[in-house]
User: Fold these one by one.
Assistant:
Number 1:
Amino acid sequence: MGFVANGNHTPSQIVIESDSFYPSIALDHIRQIVRIDGAVTNDRLKQAIIEEIIDINRLLKSLKDKATQLSDLATTQINEQPDTDYLYLSAVANGVAAKINENYRNYDSSNAGGKKAEDAELTVDDYRRNKQWAILQLLGENHTVVELI
């Protein structure tokens, strides 16, 4: 399930902010990370990002009792940024990737490689798993979920 890129996008400079606890998310940064071109309009991408931010903020709500900002809970810095900022961005980006892949089934950001490239692309389930793992890391929980049958 790949993305089919059919055009360049114009840089938007759109930054989406939720409340001050969470880092802001730049629409163009999500485009770059998830490799989304102009086939997905800024308005549609912005809507997908907002929906993911709402969902992730809801899941991370319990962390607000522990600090005034998510970055206060960081355990390390990477490139002078708190690890929590990277994990939050990962959760949002992977959630958006799942949503875009689901809604634009024929979208391929490389437009090359045919079936071989499709086989190598992350699936919607992979993106959702990566989103969940980033959320679990932010919550200080393990990735492994064991279910008894």
Note: The chain has one domain: 15-138.
Number 2:
Amino acid sequence: MRRIGLGLFIIGITFANAYAQEDYGPVNTGAANYLTIPADARSAAMGGAGVAAPGGDHAVFHNGAAALSDVTRRGGVAYTYSPWMRDYESGYSLHCLGGFYKINQRNAILLGFRYFGYPEMDGTGEGVSGIHPKEIAVEAGYAYEVIKNFSVSATFKYLFSDMGRIGNSRGASSVAFDLGVLYKCGINDWEGAGWSVGLHASNLGPKINYLTSKEALPATVKVGGAADLPFLQMHKLTLTADLGYRLSPADVQALSVSAGAEYAWRELVMLRGGYHCGDKKKGDASYATAGAGVEYAGVHLDFAWLFAGHEYLARNTFWVSLGYSF
């Protein structure tokens, strides 16, 4: 059992070290930190911003209330893959599956699934075969338009952390909740243009109880804004930004800013760029991102790449998303 506890501790430090700068050393940022990784390529390409951007297939991960923001789509589903920290060590991987379905224009159901895999290791954290640590989140939510252009959402998460079978251990689990709010408004005398503001509180719940310790979830509150600005009939510019505050664990409470832009041509080809500014003393690095996407007949393929210095272990990570909306 002590070996499991040590293994969990090493995994937590290793994951947190992806964000920490070498000048400050590793930072233990608690449990389930895979929940802080952007869950789709579009958001990742814009610095991780997404609270107020049109949600669609991945709204359950960023702000469930945004699932109602696009009146032209009834539902959708998308899958995302990211080989996290690929330059540091192979074996870390994030898989996300998200979707939504509008019952009508005022109600929507949200579903999500996240799987984060670690390299094989033993109970002391050394890389050997036999133990396959992994973490899973199953999410279900509901979005409701309270009044015209004002929506709210609530999402329930079941979290499971499996460090492999050693002794009597069968893993640890917990539950968490997300709450979202979104308000959108058109811009007078500018056809197709509009802006939105949103609020999203995520990962609110009890600590995960491991064999030897209890670790806090990465509870975070974000406020965001976005603007859609079409021009010259065939072009559109989307600007978005989030201001976030990490609530727990107490040792890593800090502000962060994510901002990005998307250029779309005929809503067929998209180019994106963004930047995330974090507090490196709290284990949250700053980095730039860029990406692109294509969409045709409801099928969309998106890609994002993360740029950072050598001290950031997640440098050169990428995301690929494939989805269908209708």
Note: The chain has a mean pLDDT of 88.
Number 3:
Amino acid sequence: MTTLDMTPGAQIPRTDTGPQTAVSLALSSAAYRDGEVTGFVDAVTDATAKKGRFALFRPNLGEAFSKALVSRALGGDRKPLVPSFGVDARQVVEHCLAAEELRNTRDRQLSTVTVVTALLFLPGTLVWLGAFQLRAWLKRDNQRGADVYGGLALIAAGILAVLLAVRPPAAGVLGLYLRITMLAPVIGWYLARRIVERSAKDLRARWQDLVSGSAVAATVSRAVPRDDLDKKATDLRDKLGRLDAEQETNIQHYAGPKGILGAGRRWGEWRLADTLHPAPGHADFRAFHPWDLVRRISSHLKGLGISHVANSGIPNVQIKQWVVFDIGEGADEISRPAAGSADMDGDRMRDFAVQSIADKQTFPGGPRHYLATQFITHDGKLVLTFTVTVTLLADVLAIAVAGYALGPVKGVFFDKPKDKEKSIPKTVKFWEERTVKLPLIDNDEVVRQAVRAPFYRAPGLLGWLGGGLGLPEPFGLRHVWVGRAWENRSMVDNAMNLSVPVLNAVHNATLEFLQEHDLDADRFFKNRTSIIKSEAQGSRPYEVDTFNAN
């Protein structure tokens, strides 16, 4: 996990994220990207593009993604976040903050250029902006019209600039001002282009490094307090700390067919149930609580990382005690018990409260206890979760094991930066085409960034003017971007193969526990264990939470 030591001394960000590196880096790379927001929205399907009032103020993908993520994860009155299994959420948010700092540095330089060469010569600037606004407006709806009519608008503005420079309609100081009123913005455009190109190359290099798997540290200087009175830095540091703590919550939410939010859909279920009887030679069995059996199963599941056969231990086994609340499939937010209550310690429910829920079982309604075993594989691209629930009703012991799979994030997050190209007809063989490389930054992009730059301290106004990116709810940094896990052969094999040792550990723990409590384990297990194990041998994913009933 990315950590930042706040004790006195050099601040050295760690970039290792354990078994979840690939997805963390891929999501972080979105903060440094260029390109249009609409293309990203079409690729991920769940996000939305917010339209602004003026096309010239529209943000690119990196700007919109960073602003949306920082506002959602660090906002003062934000809604709770869904845990992001397989992702270092803090690292992703810190990269968004780092990208914003890089852009703010660029915008400060552009603001100086804009004030000197554009604001002081506002009449000429407005003419040029009108031409570029027309191009941007046409580009949104009609690319061919943008090339034709937008080009004509720029030519008309250029002719007007020449006429004013050669024959201004006034003399004296006013005439001199009119001569240069449309030339000064052109000089400003040249200076702004150099600033924008330098910034774009830096951002693209970070994008390339992150997608390629290189360690790129996110340096967030504004999260390091200069002294005890630096309240802004202290507040930002505290918000990042809260984000970290929230990711460790043990309160989850079950959203019907969507499964456990953050853990994926339920793809398999195995049940073991029978009436409890004393073992032969015993008049009665020793009483126990469901929590006692849960603890025994938990200790056996922890042993999955150890094997007597070389290289066969399962790495990165995580055992968690969850309290799961039911919410509707279409719910747009989640909630947790108040942090100040006796049962809560911040975003986590205290151990005694978890044990109480496991023992009471809340059959009439309320939260349920799940023993979760989680495996993060394929560098975080696949998160497999197996939950165990223990239920005691009318002397019937029921143990259910369910499998959940959270697939890889959409492929757009792994796209690498590409050179801009265009196909044009050959000069002689006009029926054939050739590919030409386009400049990294075109005139429209220079003007767009120069116009947005003076407003960088007012992100709310920029969002109103140019629009932004709408995030799906309930939001989590991982589960809202995922695709299907069952389209990758290796991932399917991992899910199928892991179910057998998990079921075996649950069976062994239950058998051992029943024998210790003078229960007839042979009667309980003789037939059912063979059935369950045969089902495990032929495990296949299916829609467990889809019921064919009215």
Note: The radius of gyration is 30 Å.
